[in-house]
Amino acid sequence: MTSGANKAYKFFLLLLSCFLFRLLPFRAPNVEPITAALMPLGRAYGGALAFFFAVGSILVYDIFTSTLGVHTFFTTGAFGLLGIWSGRYFKGQEAGIASYIRFAIIGTLFFDVVTGLIPGPIFYGQPFAVALAGQIPFTALHLLGNVAFAATLSPVIHYLLIKKRKPTASPSRDLALNLKQFN
C-alpha cells in the first residue's frame, strides 16, 4: 500500500471507529473518542487533516442520525479549530501522555464554552446562569472522558499512525516497546 493510500486508510478507519463508538447505546453523549483521535492525527499528519477528521466525524454522525441542526455548526466549528490547533500544538512537542492530557483539558474547556455556553443563550433564549449551571456537570464528565482517552487511546493511535511496516517477531512486543516512550 502506498504512503498516501495507507494514510487515507488509517484516516477512514479512525473516522469509522469514532462513528461506531458514538452509536453505542447507553453512552454519555459527551464521552467519545474524537479528541483522542484528532490529537495524534494532528501530530502525525498536520492540522488540516485533523480539521477534516473532526468536521467529518460530526457531520457524518449528525446526518446519519438525523440530528443536523444549529448545534452542528457550533460543534463542527469548535472541533475543526481543535483539529487545526492540534497540528500546531503537537508540531514542536514530544508525543507524550502529559501533552495529550494537557491538550485534552484545554481543548475540552474551549469546546464546551463554544458549544454549551454560547448557543443556549443566543439561539434558545436560555439565561446564561442556567447555561453555566447545566454546563458544569456536563463539562466535568466530558473532561473525565477526554483525559482518560488521551492517556490511554491517543498514544496507541499515535503509534498506529506512525509505525512503519516491517517484519517483526512479536507485534505486541513492538507495540509495548514503542509505548514505553509515553511513560
What does the model show?
The protein is an all-alpha fold and 183 residues long. 77% of the residues lie in helices and 0% in strands. It has helices at residues 3-22, 34-45, 47-64, 70-89, 97-117, 119-123, 128-162, 171-179.
Compact overview of the structure:
This protein is mainly α and 183 residues long.
Please give the radius of gyration in angstroms.
17 Å
Provide the residue-averaged pLDDT.
Answer: 89
> What's the domain count?
1
In the CATH hierarchy, the architecture is Orthogonal Bundle
Individual helix count: 8
In the predicted model, the low-confidence regions spanning at least 5 consecutive residues are none
β-strand number: 0
Main beta sheet, described?
none
Quaternary state of this entry equals: single chain
The N- and C-terminal alpha carbons lie at a distance of 32 Å
CATH third-level topology? Arp2/3 complex 21 kDa subunit ARPC3
Question: What is the H-and-E element order?
Answer: HHHHHHHH
Helix content: over 70%
Q: Strand share of the residues?
A: under 5%
The global form is globular
Structural class: mainly alpha
Mind telling me the CATH class? Mainly Alpha
Features:
183 residues; mainly alpha; Arp2/3 complex 21 kDa subunit ARPC3; 8 helices; 0% strand; globular
Write the layout of secondary structure elements.
Blueprint: H1 3-22, H2 34-45, H3 47-64, H4 70-89, H5 97-117, H6 119-123, H7 128-162, H8 171-179
Helix pairs in contact: 1-2, 1-3, 2-3, 2-4, 2-5, 2-7, 3-4, 4-5, 5-7
